[in-house]
Specification:
- With about 190 residues, the protein is of the alpha+beta class.
- The protein has two domains: about 5-130 and about 170-185, MM3350-like (Structural Genomics Hypothetical 15.5 Kd Protein In mrcA-pckA Intergenic Region, Chain A), CATH 3.10.290; about 130-170, no CATH class.
- The chain contains six helices and eight strands; from the N terminus they run ββαββαβαβββααα.
- It has helices at about 35-45, 65, 80-85, 140-150, 155-165, 175-180, and strands at about 5-15, 20-30, 50-55, 60, 75, 90-95, 105-115, 125-130.
- The chain has an eight-stranded mixed beta sheet with strand order 5-4-3-6-7-1-2-8.
- The protein is globular.
- The two termini are about 20 Å apart.
- The mean pLDDT is about 90.
């Protein structure tokens, strides 16, 4: 079996949120960071409507067409293999989504596994809590959003409930929903 065929078990934790919002996934070590971006969008529950980047130390990876008009100096995440960025357990990578809201995700390589021929990768093994709604204003805005929807006397209660479509369960996490959505990623 080649090194590229190995499976990485990753724990993704949304930073600056307590209690934590996290996911545990397994992916092939030879996927690109661009593909990992798609996996993260699905497993976290984002809508992929904002820019993103990965940061490994002082090196930044992202979509090269975004960098054409900026000073981000991004390396092409479509050419960067995950297994070349993270090489051993306990190493971390930062994934930032929506530069305005500044959602930072810590990606921890927990363990390197041999693939199970009976398993389809990528897959989601577990997680906790719902992803914040898009455009809620980052960690501080999310805290305000939760306070408002939980308190009928809050001045923004009705406005936020209407904005979110009537209800939002911050504790919800549906493993089967996330795992089955990953079946479309190769």
């Amino acid at each position: 079996m080649t090194k590229e065929a190995k499976i990485y078990q990753l724990k993704i934790t949304l930073k600056y949120i307590r209690p934590p919002i996290w996911r545990r996934i397994q992916v092939r070590r030879d996927i690109t960071l661009a593909t990992l971006h798609r996996v993260l969008q699905i497993t976290m529950g984002w809508n992929d409507s904002h820019l993103h980047q990965f940061r490994a130390g002082k090196i930044y990876y992202g979509a090269p067409d975004v960098d054409e008009f900026s000073e981000l100096n991004l390396k092409d995440d479509g050419k960067a293999q995950l297994g070349r960025v993270l090489t051993k357990p306990k190493q971390k990578l930062i994934y930032e989504y929506d530069f305005g809201d500044g959602w930072e995700h810590e990606i921890l390589l927990e363990i390197v596994l041999t693939p199970d021929p009976a398993v389809q990768y990528p897959r989601c093994l577990g997680g906790a809590r719902a992803c914040p709604p898009e455009d809620c204003g980052g960690a501080g805005g999310y805290a305000n959003f939760l306070a408002a929807i939980r308190d009928p006397g809050h001045g923004e209660h009705d406005e936020y409930l209407e904005w979110i479509g009537g209800e939002f369960d911050s504790e919800a996490f549906e493993l089967d929903e996330f795992d089955s959505a990953l079946r479309h990623i190769k």
